[in-house]
Design brief:
10 strands
Length: 112
């Protein structure tokens, strides 16, 4: 059974940084493309970033240059380093491993 556990969310001031983690189990992690999505209140869930098995990365335009996705295969963990955070980054952030496998989400709130 696939299990994805996110952590690292919290309250941060505009301009601040957070690092989210997603620990995976029940999957063959190395070959799996891992993604981060987010959902703000009253809005649809949106894709944020992805990293392939060969560590090719891609980002939504709204976070490009501020967020970095990376993975540690030995730890079966994918990270999202978020810098220069803005209030509009406030959302629940979800990890996704494909085939309908989602984590429970971690709340990120950017506010002064």
């Amino acid at each position: 059974q696939v299990q994805l556990v996110e952590s690292g969310g919290g309250l941060v001031q505009p301009g601040g940084s957070l690092r989210l983690s997603c620990a995976a189990s029940g999957i063959v992690f190395g070959p799996t493309t891992m993604s981060w999505y987010r959902q703000a209140p009253g809005k649809q869930r949106e894709w944020v970033a992805a990293i392939t098995s060969t560590r090719t990365t891609d980002y939504a335009d709204s976070v490009k240059g501020r967020f970095t996705i990376y993975r540690e295969n030995a730890e079966k963990t994918v990270y999202l380093q978020m810098n220069s955070l803005k209030p509009e980054d406030t959302a629940v952030y979800y990890c996704y491993a494909g085939r309908g496998s989602w984590g429970q989400g971690t709340q990120v709130t950017v506010s002064s």
